[in-house]
Amino acid sequence: MKPFEISPDTNVAHVSLNVYSIQRALDFYQGLLGFQLIGKASDENAILSVNRSDNEEYLLHLSKTGKQHRIVEGERSTSRRAGLYHFAILLPSRRYLANVFKHLTENSNELCFEGAADHLVSESLYLRDPDSNGVEIYRDRNQSDWKRIGRFQVVMSTDYLNLEQLLREADDPNEWHMPAKTIIGHVHLHVSNLIKSKKFYSTILGLHHTCTYPRANFFAADSYHHHVATNTWLGNDIHKADFSQPGLDHFALKLDSKQNYERLVEQLRRMKIQVLRDDNNKINKDSIFIYDPDGIKIQIYYR
Fold first, then answer.
1. Cα dihedral: 298, 69, 90, 31 (round 10)
2. What range does the domain containing 50 cover?
């Protein structure tokens, strides 16, 4: 039997984060990073996108949780549990990466800015939000410049990114905001077992295994470098995901058609993966939640 493959146009639609304070998170994601607030924020929830009126294609959902990490604001969490390593905001071009870097150097501090890297397929800036969630902001190089091994394997690295040169390429915009066509490019997860997570994301969900790092795997729909990455950099004895804590509540994979959605749901049931109906999705009733081997929650739907 031919291995199951998820539909090629699958992408990460949005990320849902649990935060200690909605206003504090908005100060970071809206005030600093330049996302647009959709509607009005409450003390419990806020929805953000690059378009103030785009309620269906939002990128971030913030939900208040009653618990707070026992860390100083901006520091990396010491909690050893499965969940978010970082989520990645994909900008349309290097010009926008230069502009956001200039904006960050003028308006942020060392607590939120963690570094930068050239990954051969992309160039990235790394931040940490007030709840210790990792945030990558990046731009892709043209796929014609990527080095491939076969159809799906992509060569990636972590090399020096010349930030001085990047800064010289920045424009002088009056006000920074996330540009149109900005999307969630990928999510990178802490897991406890690379073999189990590879079976789940590759064999069960049908993503292609695109690259291997020391103690990390990368997976993608079609020929992208990765939509999901997993690592065991916290060790193999970490706790399962905990949705009562600040951090990742879930991320969403959006498929391109009802037919492909139904194929994936059938695959999940055939592989005996528990499928939970998403009764709160008012935009599309064909929406489910599943959990990976470490209890990380994933929403799957189509539009």
1. 130
2. 11-66+80-302
Go through the chain and tell me how many residues it has: 303
* Residue 2 within a domain: no
Q: Is residue 74 part of a domain?
A: no
Tell me the pLDDT tens digit for each residue of 10-26.
Answer: 999 999 999 999 999 99
CATH number where 39 lies: 3.10.180.10
Domain tally, the chain: 1
186 burial type by CB count under 10 A (0-12 exposed, 13-18 middle, 19+ buried): buried
Name, in order, each residue with C-beta under 8 angstroms of 90's C-beta and a sequence gap of 6 or more.
Answer: 138, 139, 140, 182, 183, 184, 185, 186
Residues 152, 220 contacting (CB under 8 angstroms): yes
Q: Is the separation of the CB atoms in 248 and 83 below 8 Å?
A: yes
Q: Which helix (H) or strand (E) holds 26?
A: helix 22-26
Q: Distances in Å between the alpha carbon of 66 and those of 139, 172, 181?
A: 35, 40, 34
* Pairwise pLDDT comparison (249 vs 281), residue with the higher score: 249
Q: How far apart are CA 239 and CA 115, in angstroms?
A: 27
Number of H helices, E strands in the chain: 5, 18
Query: Is residue 75 a part of any domain in this protein?
Result: no
| Residue 72 domain-assigned (yes or no) | no
Tens of pLDDT along 71-86? Answer: 444 445 557 899 999 9
